[in-house]
Structures are given as C-alpha cells and as structure tokens.
Amino acid sequence: ETWIVALEKLYAEQPSNRTLRYHLIQVLLASKAKTKFPRLIALMTQDQKLFPLEIWPQVYLLTYKTWKNRRDKAETGLLLPECQQLMKKYPNRMEPLVVAWYVARRISMLYFLKKLETKIARFTQANTLWAVWYRVMMKYNQKKFAKVFDIIQDIASQKIMIPAEEAKVLLQILLARFYWKNRPRALTIYNIALKKWPHDTELLVGRGRLLIYLKRPQEALKDFAKAAPHLNNINLIQRVLWATSYNSATRHVAMQVLQHYLQRHPGHPWAIGQRAYIYEQKKQYDLAEKDYQYLLQRTLPAPSSIYTRISSFYQYRRKDIPKAIQALTIAIRH
Span 155-159, mean pLDDT? Predict the structure, then answer.
C-alpha cells in the first residue's frame, strides 16, 4: 500500500510519463487492495486515449476487463461487442482474435469459439515471433504439453525458421516458463539451443538451474562458471544465487558470480549486501561485517531487505543494539 501511494504521488507530478504509468499498473495488478479495479481501468483507459492509434493499450484494457469479470459470465459476455469492434478495426492482427477467444471460452460460446480458432490457426501458420508464441500458448491452454515441447524443440533446431535473435529470445522465455512440465525434455532443448548459442548467459543460467533440479550439481556449476564473467543482469544473477548460495557445496559459485559483477560495478550496494550474506552463511562474520559497515556508512540506495538483514546481524551476531537500530531506521526510510 505504501508503495502504491508513493507511485501515485510521483505519477500525479508526471502524468505524461508512460513508463511510470505502466509501473503503477503492474504494482496495482499485484496488489490485494479492494479499490484497485476502478483505478486500473482508469489508468488503462487513459493510456488508450493518449495512444489511440496503438493496438496494445486497447488489447491490455480488454484483456484486463476479461480477467476482472472472469467469475461472472454475464459481465464477461458484455465484452464480446468490444472484441468484435477491435477485430474489425484491426483485421490483419491476431491479438483481438485471441482476446475474443478468451471471452468466448469463458461464456461457452462454442460456435463462435470454433470460428475464432479457425481464424487464429491461419495467423499462427506464419513463422513469426508472435504467431509461434500464440501457437505454443494455445497448445498449453489445451493441456497438450507434449505439443508445447515439440514446438519449442522445432525453434531450437530451426525447423521453424524465424530470425536467429527472435528465436533465441523466444527460447529463453518459453524454456523459463515451461521447463517444469517436462524437465528431461527441457534439458534436451537447452542442449540443442546452446550448441547454436554456446555463450548465451540466459540459456546457460537456465540450463544450470535445471541441472540443479535434476540433481546434477557439478554440470550445473560448469554452466554457472561459464556465464559468471558476463552476467550483468541482476535478475539472472539472482537466479544463480537462488540455485547456489544455500548449499555449502555450491556457494563458491555464487561468490564467484558476485565478485565478477563487483569488478565491473565496484561498490554496487545490492551485490555487496548479497556477498555479505554469503560470508554470514560461511561463518566469516568479520568479512560480512566489513561489507555491512560499508553499506551503513554510506546509506546507499540498497533494497530495504538488506538493511533489515544488517539489523538482524548486529542484533543477534554482534549484540550491538545501536547499530541494529541504525540499520532498521534506514530500512524503514527505504
């Protein structure tokens, strides 16, 4: 709630900032606030008015209304005319068809659903990024998981010919999303993809995490070690840390990734906080304290969770209550 209030205040000062509006929309979507529905629709409607020639604001708004009314068939049915208007406005785009398909499925309008599936099938025969993406999602919604992996493997082996960079991005997204449905099959696809892009950090990290789940940690460590010098994406680094930092046998890889990152970004507060936490787990409390003091003395814009951890360190490890309160005060301000 506090975060929403802060974003609303910023947005009131910069109402034309589209990035800020999208960020506010995402935070509201994740919120449990009862008042979020009218506010979300107001923000999405505003985006639609500001960019009337773009299809995406209209598609997002309609998709959200469909999701909001998902438990009320009558309310969902009222969205069908909007879907049909969008289909007429953009006859050569697949997105309105897909939204209409969701609406028709929710209200069990089987005849219209069949017509839509025929139209969507024509679009999805094309080997473009979005067509292949929707082809996968339709198979997933129909619970045809083997077919999902067939399509992903065809992308990796280039039986589906789409531009190489688009294929790589699609593989990264689809494997990260669906690997848990069939881990051995996902590993086969990662192996095919990494023959073509052997130095792609996202694919290396993805395969490494999968190997951890398959209880093959030594192979996973090789992938993480290969990716470590090139990791600049905090989200990817976080995935490596989740997979390695909680196990004493793999913790050195987490440290290696952080050290490489800190060589390129000296003094980065998030990375220093993560390194200190690993020192704590290794019972190297003096080294941990050195990093924590660095963060306290500079009150850097690190996540509040790091200062909460510093507070716990001084309260329980060092019995230094003034330092613990200092860190907690910074956490609250953040």
Answer: 91
